[in-house]
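[[Local backbone shapes]]
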Amino acid sequence: MALHIGTLRPPRGAHKRPKRIGQGMGSGHGKTATRGSKGQRSRAGSRLRPGFEGGQMPLHRRLPKRGFTNIFKKRFAILNLSDLAQFNPTEKVTPELLQKRGILRRLHDGLKILGEGELQQPLEIHAHRFSRSAIEKIRKAGGKVEVIPA
């Protein structure tokens, strides 16, 4: 027998027929059609939203509200000095260059350079923020720190 799309069948026992409800008393699923008797959930078109507790005050409204969202919070893309070791001393390291090279995916509200790792060659680094340790290590390696205004 040739195997092609028209002859494909699921393996024996893999496909179960759907339960036919409301097909008369002899079917075993007649009368109330597996919905129990009376009540909100037995009616046609009844669909309760998630979290509905039958009119009781729902859990998400019984619990107290806590905290707040600071709408002025700034999110920075973070990069360590160890990530900048691959650059040549002649290159200016900018957020745009880092994105072009695929080192940074998203810039968010700016770039912050942290001092994890060591810098072997002098680099000119342009970023929105620097940690104290990063500034020290960049200057110790003979590099330049340039803060981009946010």
Notes: The first strand starts at residue 77 and ends at 80. Helices lie at 59-62, 95-101, 132-140. The chain has three helices and six strands.
